[in-house]
């Protein structure tokens, strides 16, 4: 089978050449949003972005063209927008078609250039050089934090870090902020001042990075370093694409090298629930695999079937690995929207009399849990309890983003609930629901978290000391901070690493928020209003996986832009874009073992 596709303005031209006669095949694929055929075939079925197109009879060796476009305002921006996981279904047989070549166009990244300073990201708060250097590649220490750095160095191909015959290291307890440290480097010894495991660990990370970035020559002097924010995070969407547990462990290693300390694990969404919970086994069993013959079609898939799920031992291994790296893991369970998978498995979460026509931005109908249905609370409370107990961090992210317009307005049961509690709008009911679910989380002994929309509603939103994550821009985060919420800044225009780098149609990634270059990750101020300083507690990068069909596609999207996210999360002082690009070039030369990050 021969297959090709190209972007032609607002449409995509796909050409299929069969190697044998095929009678009325069905062309199946997914995309970045709802799609339809405009020529060469007839749209048969759509579920969100998953599309089936009826084709005429195909004759062996005769090319057939199909013209496809996005249904709505979406316009294909680059190769990532072309049909994902294309295949033909004919007479019960599935014939896979060649996928679009994936990956970032990195021609614009440039080459490694010399950097006159400490080649490390994030940059330390201060460095007082002693005008001397020492040759050191190993360090003598039996501290657990340095042992964790050693294990990380071995895993990532640096060859090691700790050695009893190495340069002597002394540890001194000193009253400092959590994760802060002072590092005094001299010819006869290295002294680490800190008050926490995190401080000692990051002192070790600094030594490991400097040794490898400066070819084993360590500059003498005093490094003083204190993180700007307590929350320095990176999010990964493992619902749209199942990443192998090892890939998550690799991501945690990368985060640790950049002094990031929060992993936001997004394993539940419209398309799948991937954690093997005991309370609702049918939820993950029926949604872990998508495609032909499964409950969920081949949404955002690399072919006619894809998927996987994470066992509790998988989760515990990830949690333990993260803890050694001074990283806490926060799970997300999604409510009330982005719940198509739950609604498919448990239709009782929907009001059967609901005649509303609300549709999500992804093109899904009926992807929202109804708070007036008893089954909804039975499910979300069971999930919150079991997931919360599994993750020792004590924080549970509840979702609460992208609620379709006028949701619940066609549901008699929801309208009755609104009347009972004096609620008038969709946002009022969402706020009431999130507040009630947050109370459950608090009773379970955890702190709730949610996306920015959870602040909406006449009741003031979710409340309950919840942390809110702003994503559409900084504005909603600032409003939430003014309302008394702790806020993590994650504006899509700067830290959504699934966005394409450039406007080139040969690039890869989304563009609904912006084109995000390495420079864009640092060209913003997380706390633009000084009086909100105590309420803005962090910065977090996001990676959504709608167009990711193989784990290896993750790394060139993250690296080196994650260096910019790490800089904004740790540094109070600005870093110039040119300096960051120069240091990033040196990071690309490290043997990180993360696949092709050039």
Structure commentary:
The mean pLDDT is 95. The chain has 3 domains: 2-96, Immunoglobulin-like; 126-225, Chitobiase, domain 2, CATH 3.30.379; 231-588, TIM Barrel (Alpha-Beta Barrel). It has 14 helices and 25 strands. Strands 16-17-20-21-22-23-24-25 form an 8-stranded parallel beta barrel, surrounded by 5 helices. It has a 6-stranded mixed β-sheet with strand order 10-15-13-14-12-11, with helices on one face. Helix content is 25%, strand content 24%. The chain is of the alpha/beta class and 598 residues long. Its EC number is 3.2.1.52. Keywords: Glycosidase, Hydrolase. InterPro entries: Beta_hexosaminidase_sua/sub, GH, Glyco_hydro_20_cat, Hex-like_dom2, HEX_bac_N. Pfam families: Glyco_hydro_20, Glyco_hydro_20b. GO terms for molecular function: beta-N-acetylhexosaminidase activity.
How far the N terminus sits from the C terminus, by CA atoms, comes to 32 Å
User: How large is the share of residues in beta strands?
Assistant: 15-25%
Strand order of the largest sheet: 16-17-20-21-22-23-24-25
Major sheet attributes: 8 strands, parallel, barrel
Report mean pLDDT, rounded to a whole number. 95
Quaternary structure of the protein: single chain
Number of helices: 14
* CATH topology group of the largest domain: TIM Barrel
CATH architecture of the largest domain: Alpha-Beta Barrel
Family: Belongs to the glycosyl hydrolase 20 family.
GO molecular function: beta-N-acetylhexosaminidase activity
Active site: 402
Enzyme class: hydrolase
